[in-house]
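comment on this one:
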Amino acid sequence: MGVERRHVPVLLKEVMQALRPKRGQVVVDCTVGLGGHSAELLRKGVRVIGLDLDPANLEAARDRLEIQGGDFELRHANFAGLPTVLGELGLEGVDGVLADLGVSSPHIDDARRGFSYRRPGPLDMRMDPTRGKTAAELVNTMGEEELAKAILELGNEESAPQIAQLIVQRRPLRMTQELMALVCKARDFTLERAAGAKLHPAARTFQALRMLVNRELPNLERLLAVLPACLKPGGTAAILSFHSGEDRLVKQAFRDGERSGAYAKTSPEPILATAAEQERNPRSRSAKLRWARRHKARG
């Protein structure tokens, strides 16, 4: 019940309208998280296959979905490998694929995961804590120009060169608060002024490193490339993004797919949260939902 109260799935109604789930269909929730969207799919009689990089998310999702009841299966997997997962399950295609991109609330709230500039913890940021390089390993080994490029492109941070220069000068860095203080210094913010800023000066740098650590854009590119082949005729893909770079990739892939005939129809514009939802759930303010639907079978 605690998870149910804390976790509010973004654009839930709009996601369901895009996927148009029907009893007996199979839908993959590529980022099951705490199970908010999947629980609604189960309520509609859909078989859900939930994927997530984080074993802790899978445990929380299992608890929630077992309470909801229904036909579901959870897998510890990266959505970039969706065809492999479907092959292991003996499925040639599914009726729907949902991906809710970005970081989940438990990642930010748990200081031990190292995602938050507001909480002291190890500089980790891995969504899958069982594999891959940590943020500390990256910032302590990357070249200055490479680091600056990543912070600029993934975080839209104009002070990226100054931040990267200071990181290289002061490393090794091990803790979130070390990096946060260093970014504030590079941007000429006192810690007191930073704490009261509408957008914390370290926010964009932390976002960039999180996306770099988890290879978020390359994984999304791979998912977009394999999506048409993973959908049954008439099947729908729905993707929620929270970053301009992600939305550009989704928009372009869906438009290219429609032009090539891989998709019959795509959402003409991104679907945004209503003012009421943005007020209730601040995470929804930057959300953009796009969908793409395959042609129905002929005959």
Notes: The CA atoms of residues 241 and 248 lie 10 Å apart. Residues 244-260 form the longest helix (17 residues). The two ends are 47 Å apart (CA to CA).
